[in-house]
Design goal:
The chain has 309 residues and is an alpha+beta fold. Helices cover 33% and strands 21% of the residues. Strands 8, 9, 10, 11, 12 and 13 form a six-stranded antiparallel sheet that branches. The protein has a four-stranded antiparallel sheet with strand order 4-7-5-6. Strand 1 (9-13), helix 1 (21-37) and strand 2 form a beta-alpha-beta unit. Helix 1 (21-37) packs across helix 10. The chain is globular and about 60 Å long. The site of magnesium ion has 2 residues, from loops.
């Protein structure tokens, strides 16, 4: 990679205070090592351990913070004030993307397909929610990632327990119609949707949960994804629109499903997805010929052009 010193001193933001801190440390260290191998003058910076004001000593930031505080616009706002260019999505897109309900509202307003849902509060009439979206459904904390606090509800009796589990992680909880079908993830890099990846969690889990994401090695990743060429193109175009609709930019990932009738449904956007060497973004980038190290430099290059966020 030519002239890595053009980046100056780079802070790789990792760790942070969210529930996904450990995942971020893994991702961030992988990015840091990749940049160092490419000759970039990079250092790890954990905003949980140091004041963000110390970032004035750097020329740019590569954000590898997942979850609240780092993926939701907060750190992006601080970096704007400090005048430091940073990778990926800006303040507004990050804030929308971190909120699964706001994301769905933007998609609905843009006529993009996302499954019916209801916000659940302690005053909600549970029977009315069951009647409106139908069983089964999935209960999700609205501002979490990594499948934290989620459960599938198949019968009314399981509803209260699922809400209790989700509210341990978030004050806002939603119920979303269960989609039976195949799951896909679509990486967006520099305005382009990369080859679609099919995710196949092990048969003994209800969905792609935390355990399957990080602690098991029997999740199957399909790339090529098994869709027909025209279906894959359709899904890529849909995800690109969905990414842009929430104001995301640079790089990220959209999770989606295809139901038994062949319809696609958008689940969520990740504006700072996992970046360990075995994460999904490097897999998709590899399919278009990027090594992990090249991918990290390509993302960092986003900080050299006039900010689009
Ligand atoms: N509506 C749904 N129907 C079926 N499975 C779902 C649905 N929503 C989410 N899932 C499953 O739960 C996983 C996590 O949900 P997702 O919305 O991607 O949140 P996050 O990855 O931020 O935790 C998905 O990868 C998928 O396996
Ligand atoms: Mg997801």
């Amino acid at each position: 990679m030519s002239n890595a010193l053009k980046f100056g001193k780079v802070a790789v933001l990792l760790g942070g205070k969210s529930a996904e801190r450990e995942v971020s440390l893994d991702s961030g260290n992988a990015v840091l090592e990749a940049l160092l191998r490419s000759g970039v003058n990079a250092e790890g910076f954990d905003p949980q351990e140091r004041s963000v004001t110390e970032l004035v000593n750097y020329d740019r930031a590569f954000i590898v913070l997942h979850g609240r505080g780092g993926e939701d616009g907060q750190i992006q706002g601080a970096l704007e004030w400090l005048g430091l260019p940073y990778t990926g999505t800006g303040v507004q897109g990050s804030a929308i993307g971190m909120d699964k309900v706001k994301t769905k509202q933007v998609w609905q307003g843009s006529e993009l397909p996302t499954a019916p849902y209801r916000i659940v509060t302690k005053d909600s009439d549970l029977q009315e929610i069951v009647d409106s979206i139908g069983l089964p459904f999935i209960i999700k904390p609205v501002h979490e990632g990594s499948s934290i606090g989620m459960s599938k509800v198949e019968k009314m009796e399981d509803f209260a327990e699922a809400i209790a589990k989700a509210t341990q992680h978030d004050a806002v909880v939603m119920a979303e119609k269960w989609i039976t079908g195949r799951e896909f993830t679509i990486v967006i890099l520099n305005g382009q949707a990369l080859p679609v990846i099919r995710l196949e969690p092990p048969k003994d889990v209800a969905f792609y949960d935390y355990e399957a994401k990080y602690n098991r090695n029997d999740v199957q990743y399909g790339i090529p994804c098994g869709l027909t060429e025209s279906e894959e193109k359709q899904l890529q175009a849909l995800c690109l629109r969905a990414f842009q609709a929430v104001g995301a930019s640079g790089w990220g990932r959209i999770d989606a499903m295809q139901d038994e009738h062949g319809n696609f449904w958008l689940l969520e956007v990740n504006t700072v997805p996992g970046m360990t060497s075995h994460s999904l973004v490097p897999k998709a980038a590899n399919a278009i010929g990027y090594s992990f190290d090249e991918l990290c430099v390509v993302i960092l290059e986003q900080t050299l052009t006039e900010a689009t966020h």
